[in-house]
């Protein structure tokens, strides 16, 4: 019952269809992408808003967001785009960010991926894009754990980084570092929900 959508953007935002299509129509989506041509400007906020409109609360949704530029149309600040996405995204939204080239907002892409249970990936013009996309697809298609909560009992902790670990995917790892006050061993208790 997988479904998909394609949103393309430059100054304007367009989409393959107005609603998600069944995976049996994937070839039509592939043909649509094959006919895309590069345009000017980068409407990141408009593209993300359109993609999020596809998603529903009752099903998990995954967005793979690819961009080769900085926001130049619509909301241009990283803070404004993050606020839009946080207000619009249904629960259980995953977002994987993919930046191509040197002119991308890595702070924005990293923040989007971190906030929405995903990861960010970058390719320079000298690198093979297809290899990195294949690695991204492997990760997207194999979630291991989501909605991870970590509690450390026995000591007071602070300066934990990252602030949260939203998900673990096949081939990835999670590392939580920080400081603590007090003496004694902290007991780790993991509260996990498998997807």
Would you give an account of this structure?
By secondary structure, the chain is an alpha+beta fold. Helix content is 27%, strand content 31%. It contains 5 helices and 12 strands. The protein has helices at residues 26-34, 44-54, 78-88, 106-115, 129-140; strands at residues 3-4, 7-9, 13-15, 21-22, 61-67, 93-100, 120-123, 143-153, 156-161, 167-169, 177-181, 187-193. The strands form 5 sheets. A 3-stranded parallel sheet has the order 5-6-7, with helices on both faces. Strands 10-8-12 form a 3-stranded antiparallel sheet, with no helix packed on it. Helix 3 runs parallel beside helix 4. The two termini are 16 Å apart. 22% of the residues are buried. Residues 189-195 have low confidence and may be disordered.
Helix-strand layout with pairing:
Layout: E1 3-4, E2 7-9, E3 13-15, E4 21-22, H1 26-34, H2 44-54, E5 61-67, H3 78-88, E6 93-100, H4 106-115, E7 120-123, H5 129-140, E8 143-153, E9 156-161, E10 167-169, E11 177-181, E12 187-193
Parallel strand pairs: 5-6, 6-7
Antiparallel strand pairs: 1-4, 2-3, 8-10, 8-12, 9-11
Helix pairs in contact: 2-3, 3-4
In short:
The protein has 195 residues and is an alpha+beta fold.
The percent of residues in helical segments reads 25-40%
Total of helices = 5
N→C terminal distance: 16 Å
Give me the Rg, rounded.
19 Å
Largest sheet, spatial ordering of strands: 5-6-7
Shape estimate: globular
Describe the largest sheet: 3 strands, parallel
Q: What structural class is derived from the secondary structure elements?
A: alpha+beta
Element-by-element helix/strand order: EEEEHHEHEHEHEEEEE
Annotation, overall tally of beta strands? 12
Query: What's the pLDDT, averaged over the residues?
Result: 86
Give start-end ranges of low-pLDDT stretches.
189-195
> Which band does the percent of strand residues land in?
25-35%
**Oligomeric grouping of the chains:** single chain
């Amino acid at each position: 019952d997988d479904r998909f959508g394609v949103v393309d953007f430059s100054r304007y935002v367009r989409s393959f269809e107005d609603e998600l299509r069944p995976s049996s129509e994937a070839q039509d989506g592939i043909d649509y992408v094959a006919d895309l041509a590069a345009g000017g400007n980068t409407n990141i906020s408009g593209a993300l808003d359109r993609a999020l409109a596809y998603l529903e609360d009752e099903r998990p949704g995954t967005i793979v967001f690819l961009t080769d530029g900085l926001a130049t149309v619509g909301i241009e600040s990283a803070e404004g785009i993050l606020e839009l996405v946080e207000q619009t995204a249904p629960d259980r939204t995953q977002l994987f960010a993919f930046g191509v080239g040197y002119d991308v907002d890595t702070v924005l892409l990293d923040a989007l991926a971190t906030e929405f249970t995903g990861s960010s990936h970058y390719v320079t013009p000298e690198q093979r894009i297809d290899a990195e996309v294949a690695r991204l697809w492997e990760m997207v298609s194999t979630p291991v754990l989501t909605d991870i909560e970590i509690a450390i009992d026995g000591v007071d902790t602070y300066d934990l980084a990252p602030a949260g670990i939203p998900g673990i995917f096949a081939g990835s790892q999670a590392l939580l570092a920080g400081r603590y006050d007090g003496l004694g061993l902290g007991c780790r208790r993991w509260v996990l929900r498998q997807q």
